[in-house]
Amino acid sequence: MKEIPLYLFLGFLESGKTKFIQDTLCDERFNSGEKTLLVVCEEGVEEYEPSVFSGSNVTVKFIEDEHDLSPKLFSQWQKETCCERVIVEYNGMWKIDSLLMNLPKGFTVVQCMTFADTTTFVSYNANMRNQTVDKLKISELVVFNRMNKNIDKMELHKIVRGISRRCDIAYEYTDGTVEYDDIVDPLPFDIDAPLIKIEDRDYALWYRDLIEETAKYEGKKVKFRAICAYDSRMPDNTFVAGRHVMTCCIDDVEYSPIVCITEKKHNIKSRDWIMVTGTIKVEYCKFYKGKGPVIHIEETAITSAPEQELATFY
Predict the structure, then answer these.
(1) Residue 113, helix vs strand vs coil
(2) Cβ atoms of residues 36 and 84 within 8 Å
(3) How far apart are CA 118 and CA 38, in angstroms?
């Protein structure tokens, strides 16, 4: 099956998505004649003007309800238009999974950008944190537009970094200039230490960094406090150790564990709090359905729960 690249543009209403897509499709460097399906899931003040696109190769389709998203609909439009790529301007109030779970086979997200109006973003984040997290967790770049010198970049930076360390940040000023974020975010632990000690307050940050950049932890020795759990699908010498992590609100708390393998007998039971010491190896594991971080245990010890059992990013 032919792969159809999909470009995904996220952001709340009036965040600048439409203007950016319109300008991009008018740029011959991006739009040099490829048959393009533009799917619009949100109508704002600005409207598309297909007549000014670079060529007549763009077909615009609209989806008005989140429940209308379906693989059948996308496949039907792909056949109708014979499109070679898809651009989606996504509704700022719809969940990302509603789209990703309804893409037909062959549709592959190759780029994801989030746009944010700096005059409203902080307020949106405070009142709809779950929607902010939903967008930034998969974005490669967030563009803060309508920026001016009086807006605190650090506040915006901290919101993004509290959700993703991978997402690049750009600030687009009202005079048209663009500045890329260069604020350094050192990890709160020494990854080059002979033993990486993870403090209780840093588990969420460490876990996310471990999952996002697993390769750099190959061969590293770590020590951290966690809750033990067993899975019937695992061998007798294997268990998982992790913490319950809250990203934005109590409704999104998830147990975020790491697979552990031990060669020694132990009396650890599910739900025990333990202090884990071991070396990380990146290898195949059924729990991950592929390769992932596996801790080869050197030492475990029963311990008490931390003062704050729920791990957070802030």
Answers:
(1) strand
(2) yes
(3) 26
- From residue 7, how far is each of 23, 85, 157, 209 by CA, in Å? 15, 8, 24, 25
Give the right CATH number for 4-180 from 3.40.50.300, 3.30.565.10, 2.40.50.320, 1.10.1040.10.
Answer: 3.40.50.300
Helix (H) or strand (E) holding 206: helix 203-212
* DSSP 8-state secondary structure symbol assigned to residue 104: P
H or E element: which one contains 170? Answer: strand 168-173
- CA trace torsion 194, 187, 9, 56 (10° rounding): -60
* CA 10 vs CA 16, 61, 90, 258, 292: distances in Å: 10, 17, 6, 31, 29
**pTM for the full model?**
0.70
For residues 271 and 199, what is the distance between their CA atoms, to the nearest angstrom? 20
Query: Which token pair is 59?
Result: 């077909």
Q: What is the CA radius of gyration of the chain?
A: 23
CATH topology of domain 196-312: OB fold (Dihydrolipoamide Acetyltransferase, E2P) (2.40.50)
Taking only the tens place, the pLDDT of each residue in 223-271 is: 999 999 987 777 888 999 999 998 766 667 889 999 999 987 777 889 9
Q: Which two tokens stand for residue 314?
A: 């802030």
Domain ranges of the chain: 4-180, 196-312
The CA-to-CA distance between both ends of the chain, in Å, stands at 44
